[in-house]
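Lab notebook, bench 4. Still working through the backlog of constructs that have no structural model yet. Next entry is a single chain of 111 residues. Request: give me the structure tokens for it.
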Amino acid sequence: IKTRSCKQLAHIVNDSEGYDYVILSPVFDGISKNQHGAFSKHSLMAVLPKAPCDVYAMGGVTPDNIADARQLGFAGAILMGSVWKGGKAPLEVYLNAIAALNPQEQKLQTA
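Model written out:
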């Protein structure tokens, strides 16, 4: 598996050929670091479909915005700060993220 991390949208399109996937950060406002999301929704939606490989969102990803990452066109998202520094048990954060991505499934389980 060949991968890379990018901090600029231009690198996703111009410098990611031959990679299996790319990690783009920071996508949302940071949790563990004092960073602000570096990209507008419009620019992400314009660039992500042009990527030659899957792109994963990192930076500020939480159960509250993980579905937004999917809607923007990311292949997936990486939870880090929300798991380790969010003030909740890591398993609870993970399960909340899964529930946010699959709301119908969650409703079926609780019904």
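Notes after review: Helices lie at 9-14, 41-47, 66-72, 81-84, 90-101, 103-110. The two ends are 40 Å apart (CA to CA). Flag for follow-up if needed.
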